[in-house]
Amino acid sequence: MSELTIDLAALLAPLAEGDGAGVDMRTDFTPKAPYQLLRGARGEARALERLLDGGDPNADPVAIAGHWRDVKKIATNILETKSKDFEIAAWLTEALVRQDGLTGVQAGGLLIKGIAETFWDKAFPSLEEPEGLEDRASPVGGLAGEGADGTLMQPLRRTPMFKRGDGSMCDLFLYKRAEEVAAIVDAERKAKRLKEGVPELEVLQREGRADSAFLKSVGLAAMAAREAWVAMDEALTDPFKGNAPSARNVTMLLDEVIGIAVKIVGPLQAATVATEEGEAAAGDGDAGGASMMDGGGMAMPGGAPGPRAMRTREDAIKQIEEIAAWFKKTEPHSPVAYTLEDTARRARLPLDELLAEVLTEGDARKAMLVRLGIHRPEG
């Protein structure tokens, strides 16, 4: 499931114009211009998806799929022949996830990472524009979302994980509903939810074991997707100067899929992940590599985010925030999430502001600064 459906090498090959990055496709406003056609197809697909999610009977899934095929075709052509563009790469990622599921996450992550590492200075939206950095961050950040679902979240929740006894597929959305019902203490309330059609968690787990080969392949695909997605996140951290768009929601969802697979079928084999230009690279113990399921412990029960390579201080703080978000989602009554959030906030404070916050008594704060050699006593 980890074989990419795009030619990553072609998408990342330098172009003849713009020092390899091509030209800005937004400057052509004619109706048949590639960027305008792409934006139109993507807009139609998203509008119909919202209608479908709202239960509109006139929202045709076949039409939605057709629009996303157009998005993939047009975006691929632009990136290969005309422009290296973060917004267009993000839109292509949206189409890939809807067509290829977890492999689409992997492909999109590697594509955006490659553009960032190879074409950052010359890619589009241009950094010479006043809002250039923000215009790059917005479409990429919109994939995972922050404070609300991004454009990848709903299709990923609907990714099939295993076949049920009645022939239907169990996706993450259904499995999480079953987990929620299983955690209900009140017997009457639990019985009501089960009567409404939510399956029992034990039944789903039994069905998952019966389709273990497929579920295992899904878990491996999620591992490959996670590695690529985390690599993308890390590649964006430095050029965005600490304000990189959040990738956390997708990472946490992938952790949930991996956690379910491990819980039902046991440890997953080492996954080989396609890296830049589609080359295979064996995992060597870094984030998303072979060690994640071999005692390294990424897939904690319930899908908690696990350890990943930390190259900078900001990487470590981001990981604290990811863990805090997981606790807030799974244990909203617990103070752990809020303690971790405050820890991450304080980690970014300058020392004088931190001491002003934790040492409210002026003389004690002044004495601490003196001891640290930062501030000399007056007189």
UniProtKB/TrEMBL annotation:
<protein>
    <submittedName>
        <fullName>Type VI secretion system protein TssA</fullName>
    </submittedName>
</protein>
<feature type="compositionally biased region" description="Low complexity">
    <location>
        <begin position="276"/>
        <end position="293"/>
    </location>
</feature>
<feature type="domain" description="ImpA N-terminal">
    <location>
        <begin position="12"/>
        <end position="144"/>
    </location>
</feature>
<feature type="region of interest" description="Disordered">
    <location>
        <begin position="276"/>
        <end position="309"/>
    </location>
</feature>
<feature type="compositionally biased region" description="Gly residues">
    <location>
        <begin position="294"/>
        <end position="305"/>
    </location>
</feature>
<dbReference type="InterPro" id="IPR017740">
    <property type="entry name" value="TssA-like"/>
</dbReference>
<dbReference type="Pfam" id="PF06812">
    <property type="entry name" value="ImpA_N"/>
</dbReference>
<dbReference type="InterPro" id="IPR010657">
    <property type="entry name" value="ImpA_N"/>
</dbReference>
